[in-house]
Amino acid sequence: MSEIKVLIVDDEVEFAEALAERLELRGFQLETVDCGRDGLAALSTGALPDVILLDLKMPDMSGFEVLVEVKEKHPSIEVIMLTGHGAVSGGIDSMERGAFDFIMKPVDLDELMEKIKLAYDKRSSTD
Amino acid sequence: MMSNYFSKFNHVISNFLDGVDKGENYKHFRLMLYGAMFIIFFVPLLLATGLSSLEHKKLLAVREQEQLKASVEGAQKTIGAFIHELQSVVRFVSREYSYEELLDQNNASELFAHLKNQYPGFVDFGVIGPSGIQKVYAGPFRLEGYDYSEQDWYTKVLVRQLYISDVFMGYRKLPHFVIAVSNKLPGNEEYWVLRLSIDYETLQNYVATVSTSAIQDIFLVNNKGLLQTRSNIFGEILEPCPFYTHYKQGETIANVDEYKGIKYLRSYVQINDSPWMVVMLKESYMHGENWSSFRFRLRMIFFGCTVLALVVIVQLVNTITNRLREADEKQNQALTEAQFTNKFASIGRLAAGVAHEINNPLAIIDQKAGLMTDLLEFSEEFDHKGKLTKSVESILDAVQRCKVITHRLLGFARRMDVTFEHIDISDLLREVLGFLEQEALYNRIRFELSFAEDLPMVFSDRGQLQQIFLNIINNAIDAIGKDGLITLSADLHDEENIDVNIQDTGPGMSSEIVKRIFDPFFTTKELGKGTGLGLSITYGLAQKLGGNITVESKVGEGTIFTVRLPINDTRKEGNFNE
Fold it and tell me: What is the four-CA torsion angle of B232, B235, B238, B244, rounded to 10 degrees?
């Protein structure tokens, strides 16, 4: 299995970096950005990620807005929403907008990896 | 006085509406309402009854007097006509026969016989010469030669030419009256007199003919106040009449007099060209039995109306006051419920905010500690590596505990959103106990769970169910105080409902308390510790979810709350808040 490319979009830089490092240690290829605009910019410059971990609440653009744009331009990229807010409705809304799944902070790393792999499998099958 | 009353009334109303001292105000309001109603009902009733009675009485009195006046004037005319006829007869005789012709006894006797035949009331007939000596007499008595020159009536007839006497006894010793005329002797200034005596019975009979059943008495009285005919009330002829009054000629009088305890309406008038006054007496209607009976009936109607009005007023005032009280209580209840709900919603929002704010730094700690673990794992052995690894694991354990707390808080916040979903009741009850286990632990209260296997999922609102069970279990903890057991069990009641029983080993409740346990504002807790709304709201929530709550309790043994919930509530979310 080739390295799964993961893009983390989260304004909590410390969280994003620590998570990225841990996933890298587990064989994932990681890139992190701290806002929605940088996230969208990252999609237009380098190689496309397989999976995006997208925070729901960010100061410049909300996770929903980023999600909608990503799905418009790159429908094959799977997005997993991260939220510190417990409202199930937020997760359901994001899934209705095309997110693969949602996961609540603090994340369980094994659970997250499992979901990333499932998302990657789905993307691979649709390619 | 009235303005004071109204200002007091306004004060009470305004206090009432402002909600100041409501218990006392209901009493005042009720009293004021009674007062106002009494005035509204009784003043017009009293005025209507009193005025109509007075007016009716006045009208009747006037009418009665007018009627009696008309009757007495009728009698005056009739009797007057009779007397006039007698006068005409005497005048006729004196004109048709000369003094010399009448001095012949045979002529006189024949004439008297004719007159007697025509007028049986004539007693006798006499011709009196200028000296006052009766020259000729025709009749049953022997009165020839009697000297009348000293008699009062003889003088009067000489002066007036025509004279009618009172009824008197005279030489005959029998009551009679006299009609006499004086005539001048031809050729000199001397007068002779023709005199006719009439039995008083003639007058009596004539008076009787004008009497009617509508009157009690009719009689004649002379200007000396002596009865000239018999009176039913005052006695025999020539006895004094106690009602005698001086009167004006031609005027008809009607007034009320009392005689021997009976009020009579009396009317009298002078009979023209006679010494008599005709008097009529009628028992006054105003003072008679009919009037008393009418007044009694009127009073009975008044009191009947009063009693009826009292009943209506009492009912009306009670209904109005009770409706006001109910409306007020409902308003209070709605207000307090709204405050209660707001409080819960605020707590929910606060909990969600706190959880969210904590989750983000917690996620950083979690990942940083996780990274440390990873790095330690991939690093060579070094001093204190084992201790460091354990410390990081402790951090991760603490993060895990915090995570459980924040997720629970978020779960609590979520129940503010009204959404119907399929819920596992046993999971939900465990979740609720999670909130209470610390408190239970401090109070040494144990929980025992006994859930039937294969319990179906319930389609209901998670938040509302949490609130229902939270309230009931909280109450059970409060009831036990320290050291006790709360048993939670859930089983299938029938195909459509499941029962959740919450049993405590608290002191239990009397049946009187059980009856009122779901009443708003009813509480057995100390003042200030309970609003008395928890179970009321809980019951309302259970009903809204299509279920109900029942209570069984025994003093000294404990209490069982049974919450029955429908498995598939067909109601939609949109209808929930109706």
Answer: -80
Are B352 and A22 an interchain contact pair (Cβ–Cβ within 8 Å)? no
Query: Do B367 and A84 make contact, defined as CB atoms within 8 angstroms?
Result: no
Chain A CB within 8 Å of residue B366 CB: yes
Q: Which residue ranges make up each domain of chain B?
A: 348-576
Contact A18/B413, CB-based, under 8 Å? no
The predicted-structure confidence for B483-519, as pLDDT tens digits, reads as follows 999 999 999 988 889 999 999 999 998 888 887 777 7
Structure tokens at B244: 């005698």
Spatial CA neighbour of B520 closest among B380, B330, B372, B362: B330
Question: What are the residues whose beta carbons fall under 8 Å from the beta carbon of B386, sequence distance 6 or more?
Answer: none
Domain chopping of chain A, boundaries:
5-126
Indicate the CATH number for domain A5-126: 3.40.50.2300
B352 touches chain A (CB under 8 A): yes
Instruction: Say if CB B462 and CB B472 are below 8 A apart.
Output: no
Predicted confidence (pLDDT) per residue in B559-573, tens digit = 999 999 998 755 444
Q: Is B418 exposed, middle or buried (0-12, 13-18, 19+ CB in 10 A)?
A: middle
8 Å CB contact between B52 and B297: no
Does this model's pTM top 0.80? no
Q: Which residues of chain B have pLDDT under 50?
A: 1-3, 5-6, 16-17, 19-20, 528, 571-578
The DSSP string of B443-485 is TTEEEEEEE-TTPPPEEEEHHHHHHHHHHHHHHHHHHH-SSEE
Q: Quick check: A49 and A23 in contact, CB under 8 A?
A: no
Identify the DSSP state of A108.
Answer: P
Asked if B371 is an interface residue toward chain A (Cβ–Cβ < 8 A), one would say yes
C-alpha distances in Å from residue B453, one per residue of A43, B433, B449, B492: 52, 20, 12, 10
Chain A contact for B404 (CB, 8 A cutoff)? no
What's the sign of the alpha-carbon dihedral B519, B524, B528, B529?
Answer: negative
Return the CATH number of B348-576, one of 3.90.1140.10, 3.30.565.10, 3.90.226.10, 2.30.30.90.
Answer: 3.30.565.10
The position carrying tokens 């929530």 is: B541
